[in-house]
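Here we describe the complex-level prediction in full. Unlike the single-chain runs in Section 2.1, the two entities below were treated as one system.
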Amino acid sequence: MTHLPGRGLTRLDSTLFGKGLRGLSIATTVTIATALALVFFYAPIDADQGFVQKIFYVHVPLAIVALIGFVVAAGFAVAHLRTRQVKFDHLSYVAIHMGIIFGVAVLLTGSIWAKASWGKWWVWDEPTLVSFLIVFLLYVTYYPLRYSIEDPERRARFSSVFAITAGAFVPINFIAVRLAEGFVHPRVLNTTAGDMPGEMRLTFLVSLAGIALLYVTLMKLELTAKHTRGQLKRLRRLLESEEAEVGPSGSPLASVPARPE
Amino acid sequence: MPALPLDEAGKYVAGAYGVFVTLILVYVAIMGARLQRMERELHALTELAERRRSRDRS
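The structure predicted for the assembly as a whole is:
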């Protein structure tokens, strides 16, 4: 935390989350465009499932990235509890936020794939689907927990504890599903690196890279917006307090309602 | 269940990729709205700072 002398302005941190966002956005766009070209013009049509198998290249990378995002959020939460730096709480929150958005996409694309492959939108006796839904619902409870606590320091601490506990549940859940007996759901990354032909594996890996880059880009975008909003709020408070000292003169700020950070 | 014919499978594939693209677009639209709000607030703050500056000069 640094104090700017003579102005009474306190700056919590000088982190610029938007740094490198342009390059990252370009890399994401190029990788996703390449992945889409590979999916529809290069990867062979699956002999068993046919054209429907193309959903695999968006559904599975989304699921992998969402789950890794939850684990990464737990890592940031550990860093927050160790250092008490606010930026780690923000990083943990945004990683979970993005994981939930990606989780919605996983559930929707998975449902569509299930309908096309199995004739049903949802199959309750399939451990992979149900376990993902449980993880997703667990993380959805993060929002009410976080926003029910007003004190920012307590909120950050409690949110970090939640992120660590839930983050530990993700790999346990993954292992439990692997040990489950029902192997109806296709295994993608098994011990023999899957039975995919080379073209399919390459397409899958490029898609995974594209989705991972998208996750990082959106995370940076969200962090930049959150950080900018915080800075604006502080600037507004400072100007308002100085205005109050000088005397009211029809502040234009009155026309813009302050929003909670 | 046997593999679906291409015309029927195509609808499901388009649906899945459509969901993905729609979610991204909705997210971008929300971010756009937030950016607009921040721009308005920044504009108001700039106005206030400029007014104070002209008052300090006079």
